[in-house]
Design goal:
The chain is about 60% helix and about 5% strand. It has about 280 residues and is mainly α. The chain has two domains: about 1-180, no CATH class; about 185-280, no CATH class. The strands form two sheets. Strands 4-3-5 form a three-stranded antiparallel β-sheet, covered by helices on one side. Strands 1-2 form a two-stranded antiparallel sheet. A hairpin with a 2-residue loop joins strand 1 (about 1-5) and strand 2. Helix 1 (about 10-25) packs antiparallel against helix 2. It starts with a strand and ends with a helix.
């Protein structure tokens, strides 16, 4: 929509739409449809361009991947895993990065479409409630604020998507490395102690608990068993639920497991290994 040769922005179009409906009321569906089309077009035009959003998303995800994988930061959660193992699983890690970027872009796209739809629903719901002939009782500022609410919140929601998907990427990369690196168990870490962190109560209860990785080599050889906490696939994974920032610190060595997870056979194996090492050192 243009006025005096100038293309009107979303807020200007909403202002005109509210003024027009306030004056004429719901006298025809054509009037409402006209403004809905103008509002939708202006909203899409005023949004941050998809190219800019995609560039921001790529930068955030790629930066995270570089820090965790290229620079080896992820190994802090995987003590005992070598650089060689990390290099070996890089193709799978890179594929997960690409997959997560695609998923995030699609989610942002859907959120944008939903925001426009919510805006139109708010406008239509209000416009069709005004009697034909208009109304002097309309609080135009309040009405405009209500109609604009979804679009106003969109940049914040897009940032939240990128943040949440970044946490999910960290969890996915860590899970791939744990699986391919031969992790025995994972020790759950929650941020519930962090001030103002909106933690989940059940995640707080999992803090520092150790969950066995099902079908790992030590289980198959009878050297360990699942403890009272059970298996990692019996519960949601860190980062799976929206805005979860929990993580696993994975355990790869039998000796680092809680004692109640090591079987008699496992304790014998550890003792024999210790005796061999002591003999070599003598």
């Amino acid at each position: 929509m243009k006025r005096d040769g100038k293309t009107l922005n979303f807020y200007e179009v909403v202002t005109l739409a509210v003024r027009d409906i306030s004056e004429h009321g719901y006298d025809s569906q054509q009037r409402v449809d006209f403004w809905m089309a103008e509002i939708a077009e202006a909203a899409a035009r005023d949004m941050t361009s998809p190219q800019v959003i995609q560039a921001t998303l790529n930068s955030a995800m790629q930066g995270l991947y570089t820090r965790l994988i290229e620079r080896g930061g992820i190994l802090k959660q995987h003590p005992g895993v070598s650089r060689f193992t990390l290099e070996k699983v890089k193709p799978a890690l890179r594929s997960e990065l690409d997959r997560r970027i695609m998923a995030s872009a699609q989610l942002i796209k859907l959120n944008r479409e939903a925001s426009i739809q919510k805006t139109l629903q708010r406008f239509s719901g209000w416009a069709t409630s005004i009697p034909a002939g208009g109304s002097d009782a309309v609080d135009k500022n309040e009405t405009k604020d209500n109609i604009k609410k979804s679009l106003k919140q969109l940049p914040f929601e897009e940032r939240r998507v990128i943040i949440d998907q970044s946490h999910k990427l960290i969890s996915s990369l860590s899970d791939i490395l744990a699986r391919d690196g031969g992790a025995l168990a994972g020790e759950w870490h929650s941020h519930w102690r962090q001030v103002n962190y909106d933690y989940r109560r059940d995640h707080k209860e999992r803090d520092m608990h150790v969950y066995a990785v099902r079908d790992n080599w030590a289980l198959k050889q009878g050297l360990m068993k699942a403890g009272s906490d059970g298996y990692s696939d019996d519960i949601t994974t860190p980062g799976e639920e929206i805005f979860c920032r929990c993580f696993y610190r994975f355990i790869y060595n039998l000796r680092d497991l809680p004692e109640n997870m090591i079987t008699a056979k496992g304790k014998t194996a550890l003792q024999e290994a210790k005796e061999k090492i002591d003999a070599i050192r003598r």
